[in-house]
What we know:
Layout: E1 2-6, H1 10-21, E2 25-30, H2 37-43, E3 47-51, H3 52-57, E4 62-65, H4 72-79, E5 87-90, H5 96-99, H6 101-108, H7 113-121, E6 126-129, H8 135-140, E7 150-155, H9 158-169, E8 174-179, H10 200-211
Parallel strand pairs: 1-2, 1-4, 2-3, 4-5, 5-6, 7-8
Antiparallel strand pairs: 6-7
The chain binds NADP nicotinamide-adenine-dinucleotide phosphate.
Amino acid sequence: MKIGIIGSGQIGGNLGKHWAKAGHQVLFSSRHPKELINLAENAGNNARAVSVAEAFEAKADVYLLAVPFKAIDDLAEIYAGEYEDKVIIDATNPYPERDGNVAQEVRDANYNSTEYTAVKFNTAKTVKAFNTIPAQQLQNRAFENTHKLAIPFAAQDELSKTVGLELIEGIGFDACYIGDLRETNIMDPEHEIFGKSLEKNELERLIASARAY
Ligand SMILES: NC(=O)c1ccc[n+]([C@@H]2O[C@H](COP(=O)([O-])OP(=O)(O)OC[C@H]3O[C@@H](n4cnc5c(N)ncnc54)[C@H](OP(=O)(O)O)[C@@H]3O)[C@@H](O)[C@H]2O)c1
């Protein structure tokens, strides 16, 4: 797949490296693409550093959003035009202290942050994934053969579910399907499975117990 990484820091940088290693074509982007040249070189021949505009112009199959949550509105305003047929993976989390009012509003709302992102990007193929795993674990625990970490994910439709699963399992994690985006509150900061680094059976137990209440 061709994957546009929007925000290539701790989360986007590590995921892009893993996906390039797994054979995908990866476009790393940020507001300062020259600063991503070393990252792209380290990721190998499947990766390039580009501007955010170039990443969107490249018509990737999938876009990963790995920016501070406050960037979602601006990115969506400029680039969302044609995105209803694209899979978007949202790894962002809203932190009011970092992201300001928009993050507080989403935290207080009766929808969650990825539902917000899906509406802003006008896509019916949004995946919520990789927002719960600490960056260090994402960096160090990919491509394991045993004792794989489980990555919880949610998806809006069959295509986004299939793509999400493939992009999680293709880099050596176990995918754990949560449901559609409405069911992802347990994945959000300060909720039951946020920040947890667990194997799949342990994660499933935790999800079941969270849902029992
Ligand atoms: N770190 C974690 O452990 C962790 C875990 C799970 C989820 N998350 C979430 O994932 C997201 C990314 O976190 P991170 O730790 O990877 O952050 P990070 O290391 O600070 O990286 C953020 C990236 O986004 C780029 N960026 C910032 N504003 C942008 C904009 N308006 N347009 C395009 N690119 C922009 C930054 O580059 P420029 O400033 O050069 O543009 C940088 O490449 C956040 O929402 C975070 O809450 C983080």
